[in-house]
Amino acid sequence: MDALLEFLTRFVSQLQSPTLGFLLGGMIIAALGSRLEIPDAIYKFIVFMLLMKVGLKGGMKIREAELSEMLLPAIFALAMGMLIVFIGRYTLAMLPNVKTEDGIATAGLFGAVSGSTLAAALAVLESENIAYEAWSVALYPFMDIPALVTAIVLASLYLNKKRGNGGESVKIWPIVKESLQGSALSALLLGIALGLITQPAPVYDSFFEPLFRGLLSVLMLVMGMEAWARLNELRKVAHWYAVYAFVAPLTHGLIAFGLGWIAHVTTGFSPGGVVVLAVIAGSSSDISGPPTLRAGIPSANPSAYVGSSTAVGTPVAIALGIPIYIGLAQALMGG
Hints:
Blueprint: H1 2-15, H2 18-31, H3 40-64, H4 67-89, H5 100-111, H6 115-127, H7 139-163, H8 173-180, H9 183-197, H10 201-234, H11 240-267, H12 271-282, H13 289-296, H14 302-333
Helix pairs in contact: 1-14, 2-10, 3-9, 3-10, 4-5, 4-7, 4-11, 5-7, 5-14, 6-10, 6-12, 6-14, 7-8, 7-13, 10-14, 11-12, 11-14, 12-14
């Protein structure tokens, strides 16, 4: 009983963090009809800056890490990316009034990773002085790419069978290439590479680190406003998408948390690292995933998968998921 009370107390305190406050604030002012706008170019620049910061720190820490420490979490991240898509394929895609390719595309987007949600989680971890392996941000592509590839392959197989072209093969490399060229993953991988092969500490300490929290707050405000705007799109499709978008982030995150706990027990993966793994599993891609799926599954309805992710999935992942995973880590592992 004491452990449950402690968890609930920590959960409520997490909801009061400025990161989540700006997200909710954006939703509230949008609901009130505010005409406040943040130009798209500024939004993209902020995302780039945040992911470069995260990537630089991750790259610098990878140089100091034992690769064997990264192996099990990376395997779990890859497995989660694929598992999430299969879960969606055999739940959402089989529900009434849900087109199979729309359900698979939605599952693919929820299997892919949100860079902004990851940045929000890292800000909360640092504000709470919860240690995490900085290299854990490198788990992003291990989950993101397999999820998108799996979704496009499953959708292609389904559509080929539906059209009577069951023997037609699906090319994997173009999907991987499209994912790697996405703006979010490109920025993160560039940051990791520069952190690995250069000495970026001076520019990191003097430029990227001081700006991080302010830029993240603006990003959360924009995402809150976007989430409210996307609710109209979500109303155009089956209500099952809203149910899935609420349940899926927490379900995926808790499964990943369990896998992270296994890594914690067997390899010493930190409680903060377990939270990072859970957060990326519970997130849904908001930048690079949608264009990749539009190209890979052109018959799928973007209102279904983008509306589900932006209007419900991302707010749930940030406002509920992050506090839950941190509370669990503190209660179970003393993080």
